[in-house]
Amino acid sequence: QLQLQESGPGLVKPSETLSLTCTVSGGSFTSSGYFWGWIRQPPGKGLEWIGNTYNGGNTFYNPSLRSRVTISVDTSKNQFSLNLSSVTAADTALYYCARLWRGYIFDAFDIWGQGTVVTVSS
Amino acid sequence: DIQMTQSPSSLSASVGDRVSITCRASQSIVDYLNWYQQKPGKAPRLLIYAASSLQSGVPSRFSGSGSGTDFTLTISNLQPEDFATYYCQQCYSTPPEFTFGQGTKLEIK
Fold it and tell me: Who has the most CB within 10 Å: A68, B41, B75, B101?
């Protein structure tokens, strides 16, 4: 059964870069029809999509974050990563990695990691 | 960008009840609409995709309907494990740009 696990620092200083990694296990990382990506949830708030990638080259991002976000893939390690630059307190959130299932007429996040909390503070 | 608005924001119901949650899009999204369930401290779980298709493993008491701008998630015969927060999500935009509704918290009456 496919599983996703986030890892990375839980505390990042303002103006620095937030870096998280998601490790995929128990299944294929390169199956067609699936993208990999990130979603976050500020404390007590709803879900915000960050971006997705297929192979690192085919990526799409939330326009509100596009200037600060990079999502990359390391297929040799079955991992994909999130870099979010110039962070502020507004980037404090629970960060989820998730698989995006790209169907014929829909896209849906069908498998999620457990999430990791990132706090931006000096 | 497409905005998604859910109503109500919160809802109280009893075990065995039938409840409905509404999601409205700021423009037509055809049937490019998904529903998720999130329990406290847990990741969201995909319930319904493409407006009305039940994800594998999801109980049949969950159903989705609607098209265009107005969508509904209905839960029949509420069970204790159904008390959670529910989110809709549109996947209509090209290039892909996914937005979620603000969530509906379903609480026990």
Answer: B101
